Amino acid sequence: MTSAQDEKHTQLAKVEDVAVPGFSPEQHQLVREDLEIDDSEEASMLPSPVVAQTPRQKPKLTAAIIIPIWIVLSSSVIIYNNYLYNTLHFRYPVFVVTWHLTFAAIGTRILQRTTPLLDGVKDVSMSKDMFLKSILPIGFLFSGSLILSNTAYLYLSVSYIQMLKAFNAVAVLLVSWTFRISEPNRKLALIVLMISSGVAVASGGELKFNMFGFIVQAASVGFEAARLVMIEILLHGLKMDPLVSLHYYAPVCAFLNLAALPFTEGLAPFFELARIGPFILITNAAVAFLLNVAAVFLVGAASGLVLTLTGVFKDILLITGSTLIFGSTVTAIQVFGYSVALGGLVMFKLTGNKK
């Protein structure tokens, strides 16, 4: 497999740990350009289309408009979730994820009937065999990733979690090398070492390090890497945009999470609903859902490199904002380590573009 395809796996790993399924802008960009491997073949993450039908014209927004909107929504989801967990002390991530997924399942079906944003659903041939052998196991990994990533916010600061996310790209590459769907090379190995070293240094500088939280976040990275590689193996060459993927995955993940709820949090979150109130619950889920809607407009708005740099800029703003809003401390050692890791991610993108 070419280095451009390796870059694909790295960008897949740049997924946001929000409480509702959705791909990062780099992943959605892959659907449009297939990382420039073959302009005649669109890459994608999910179920295969039959003969493509001519969809209704979707509205478009310029990069100057949609990129700031995406940055605000992406940051808002994480900050809002952290506020819910740690300020309002509603410490029930399984319930929150289940609620977000249920909201998304309903929301995508409303949009399907009222807008052209989900016309891609008509192009998807979903068989029982594909659902059981592909969608269901991938949905299981997705549920695990979402629950674990949200649980990490109970033990770690927002800023530190964002730093740990830089390792997602490395995890996906390591898993893809293990399953031999891509081949390692010296340049990639050096970049992987650079990213890993940066994350390690940032971890060493964390003042409020929590081992359990670190393990939970690491497990989330493992689940996410396995999910993305599973998509590459089972659903290679299939076409879905972020909302269409949400249309199929949200009900599956919501059901799996609901089945896990009695064994994890029980009835406790339901007794707290009156204290939290419907406004917080609805707006929290709505912001997460709007992030996925924004991703649809973001896909074709800019190049893959611009989207990568946008994600880096968003992470920096989020780390800065979390220190101001939640009072978390970021040390000079963490800044240095995270800068090294981000430099590795940008170098990977630039290396891929040159090739």
Automatic annotation (TrEMBL):
Keyword terms: Membrane, Transmembrane, Transmembrane helix
Localization per Swiss-Prot or TrEMBL: Membrane
Membrane topology: Multi-pass membrane protein
Location of the Sugar phosphate transporter domain: 63-348
Keyword Transmembrane: yes
GO cellular component terms, A-Z: membrane
Domain of life: Eukaryota
Entry's transmembrane regions: 61-80, 92-111, 131-148, 188-205, 246-264, 276-298, 332-350
Record's keyword annotation contains Transit peptide: no
Protein name from the UniProt record: TPT-domain-containing protein
Highest classification ranks of the organism: Eukaryota, Fungi, Dikarya, Basidiomycota, Agaricomycotina
